[in-house]
Amino acid sequence: MILPTLIILFAILWRVNSLRQCRQANGCGHERGFKFDSILRKLNMNFTIPCCNEHDICYDTCNQTQIICDNNYRLCVQEACNKPVKTRFRSLFCELYADLLFYIVGFAGTGAFDRAQRKHCLES
């Protein structure tokens, strides 16, 4: 009795996982649009790119909310900004950059968040 139950459970879990798409982190910018990574590298701000990747993964995480993802993104960039300052630009504009991008993803990211949730999560 246990073996058939385990087989059925395994089959259900396999099916659920096969329905979910692979989560993607694509750096800073829209997946099909403009990427900011090269600009960030030129400005010595490439230390913020991992925050963008975490933000992408958060958007793809089922039952997550956009505001939590966006707040975590802002905190990640702010924490990166508080690491030892290596350039003048970083010290002067880093926190402003964190706030600006927070507002941009909050305003313009709703469509991306909704698409990611539909793509990666089962509809109830």
Structural class: mainly alpha
Q: How many domains would you count in the coordinates?
A: 1
Query: Percent of residues in beta strands?
Result: under 5%
Shape category = elongated
Distance between the termini: 30 Å
Largest sheet: none
Low-confidence residue ranges: 8-21
Order of helices and strands: HHHHHH
Please report the total strand number as a whole number.
0
Please explain how this structure is put together.
The chain is an all-alpha fold and 124 residues long. It has 6 helices and no strands. It has helices spanning 2-19, 37-42, 49-60, 66-81, 88-108, 110-120. Helix 3 runs antiparallel to helix 4 and helix 4 (66-81) packs antiparallel against helix 5 (88-108). The relative contact order is 0.13. Keywords: Signal.
Annotation keywords:
124 residues, mainly alpha, single chain, elongated, 6 helices, 0% strand, calcium ion binding
Topology:
Blueprint: H1 2-19, H2 37-42, H3 49-60, H4 66-81, H5 88-108, H6 110-120
Helix pairs in contact: 3-4, 4-5
Short description:
Pfam families: PLA2G12. Helix content is 68%, strand content 0%. It is mainly alpha-helical.
